[in-house]
Amino acid sequence: MTHSKNPQTRRGRGPARRIGRSLALVLPVVLVLSGTLAVARVNWSGNPSTSPVLTAADTSAAGASSRAAARAPQDVLRDQLLIELQKKNPGAALTQLQQAVDDRPSLAKHCASIARSLGRAAVRVYGPTKAQSYSRPVCDTSFAAGVVAANN
Question: Quick check: 130 and 104 in contact, CB under 8 A?
Fold first, then answer.
């Protein structure tokens, strides 16, 4: 019976070693290919995805658009009133503000800040003297305060 002089040379040549070597060669290739395919699936153009698969980029874009669509009611009202101020006059915008607060009492806590914004915008559009002529006691005197703040 012949025995190897070095017992460690026979030790690592079994099927487990062959499997280990195969995995060591194949596993990095599989990981690189799967990463490449994952990156290829992302819609990098920024256009909405038509694919039923929702990628990470799609979820962040969907979140941003839902936040934009779900703007606070007072911000939507402020934007509408600023447009009204430019189309007609500050008086019309203040009348709409009063009606909106009467219709939705939850907007009352934002009335003063919206009126101040209207006052500042009125100064930019009409100048301080004409803007002040539209002042009325909507939301206390916040419109007038906005006119004064924009004038300083």
Answer: no
- Sequence-distant (6+) residues with CB within 8 A of 41 are 51, 53, 55
Q: Kindly report whether the global pTM for this prediction surpasses the value 0.90.
A: no
DSSP alpha helices (H): ranges in the chain? 8-11, 15-41, 56-69, 73-87, 90-103, 108-126, 128-133, 142-151
Q: How confident is the model at residue 57 (pLDDT cuts 50, 70, 90)?
A: very low
CB atoms closer than 10 angstroms to residue 133: 13
Cα separation, 81 vs 103, whole angstroms = 15
Rounded Cα distance, 98 and 137, in Å:
10
Return all residues near 144 (Cβ < 8 A) that are at least 6 apart.
119, 132, 135
Q: What angle do CA 88, 92, 96 make, to 5 degrees?
A: 130
> Which residues 6+ apart lie within 8 Å of 142 measured at CB?
111, 112, 113, 114, 115, 116, 119
